[in-house]
Amino acid sequence: MALPVWLVSLVQPVLVPLCFIVAWAVMGLTFWHLVVTVRDGVNQATVMHKIPCAECCYFTNDYRLKCPIHPKIALSEAAIDCTDFEDSGLR
Fold first, then answer.
1. Record's superkingdom (predicted)?
2. Phi, psi (deg, nearest 5) at residue 21
3. Rounded to an integer, what distance in angstroms lies between the CA atom of residue 64 and that of residue 71?
4. Within a 10 A sphere around the Cβ of 53, how many other Cβ atoms?
5. Is 73 exposed, middle or buried (0-12, 13-18, 19+ CB in 10 A)?
6. pLDDT (tens digit, 0 to 9) for every residue of the chain, 91 residues total?
7. What's the distance, CA 77 to chain centroid?
8. Left if phi > 0, otherwise alpha if psi is -120 to 50, otherwise beta: which for 89?
9. Radius of gyration of the chain from Cα atoms?
10. CB atoms closer than 10 angstroms to residue 71
11. Quick one: CA dihedral 61, 66, 70, 74, positive or negative?
12. Helix %, strand %, coil % for the chain, to 5?
């Protein structure tokens, strides 16, 4: 059953701008979500690059025992200020 022409002509002046605004709002929110995701990823990567375990002389590079001194905090954010860190000089 087709809509009457007068009903379509009555709704169209409201519906076209509304759809335009909704479409651009969806595009804007998608772009904003991408920006926030990239920003959070960069912040997380910055924190992870502060973990000094890979350059420590006690780091074993073995998945079973990464650090014999602090095995529970090895390669975690808790190891950022490790008091037993000694540079291995590999860099």
1. Bacteria
2. -65, -40
3. 9
4. 19
5. middle
6. 677 888 888 888 999 999 999 999 999 999 999 999 999 999 999 999 999 999 999 999 898 999 999 999 999 999 999 999 999 876 5
7. 16
8. left
9. 28
10. 11
11. positive
12. 55, 0, 45
Question: Which residue matches tokens 């009555």?
Answer: 10
Q: Which residue has the tokens 């701008």?
A: 17
Partners of 56 in beta bridges: 87
Q: Look up residue 34 and give its amino acid.
A: L
> What is residue 56's three-state secondary structure?
strand
pLDDT at 91: 58
